[in-house]
Q: What sequence folds into this?
């Protein structure tokens, strides 16, 4: 059972993400116009000529900083160590299924339950098993979500393939389970 006193804190930060698209979703690509007889490798056989209509293209990647928000809040709860441990095992490292108390406008997979800590505060009145615990819940939001992108790299050039196709040349791999945070006994609306 949650009590009404909630202490909340939030902090924003940036994290680095390697991307192959600009902010408009266009693939990053550079090109070079080789001239007849130009050497592009280490041997004479590695000569390449292009035309203005058919330049040598290379896809590019850059590192961009993306926002992340971490929110923690602590509340007093009358419960047991076993209940808190079970809650921890159920929710830690999971992503939200959809909107929830903390963020009613979010979509699935943007918030991760990153930490839960508790300390004994007092013995609950008229109870021999329950204790009053100060429980801290921590969540982190990433606008890009938590999927990891894997990209095919051409072994000859060391670069991604030109004109990559989703689920062929690159894939977004989901590594975390989704769970509804709605069952957590959060009293966010009472935060002071």
A:
């Amino acid at each position: 059972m949650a009590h009404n006193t909630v202490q909340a804190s939030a902090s924003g930060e940036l994290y680095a993400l390697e991307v192959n698209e600009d902010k408009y979703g266009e693939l990053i690509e550079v090109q070079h116009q080789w001239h007849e007889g130009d050497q592009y490798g280490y041997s004479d056989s590695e000569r390449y000529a292009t035309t203005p209509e058919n330049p040598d293209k290379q896809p590019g990647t850059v590192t961009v900083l993306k926002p992340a928000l971490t929110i923690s809040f602590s509340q007093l709860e009358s419960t047991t160590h076993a209940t808190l441990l079970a809650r921890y095992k159920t929710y830690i490292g999971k992503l939200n299924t959809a909107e929830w108390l903390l963020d009613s406008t979010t979509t699935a997979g943007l918030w991760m339950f990153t930490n839960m800590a508790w300390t004994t505060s007092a013995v609950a009145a008229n109870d021999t098993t329950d204790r009053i615990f100060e429980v801290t819940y921590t969540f982190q939001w990433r606008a890009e979500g938590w999927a990891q992108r894997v990209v095919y790299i051409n072994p000859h050039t060391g670069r991604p393939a030109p004109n990559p196709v989703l689920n062929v040349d690159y894939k977004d791999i989901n590594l975390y389970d989704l769970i509804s945070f709605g069952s957590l006994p959060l009293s966010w609306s009472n935060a002071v």
Q: What stands out?
A: Residues 21-59 form one domain. Residues 110 and 146 are 7 Å apart (CA to CA).
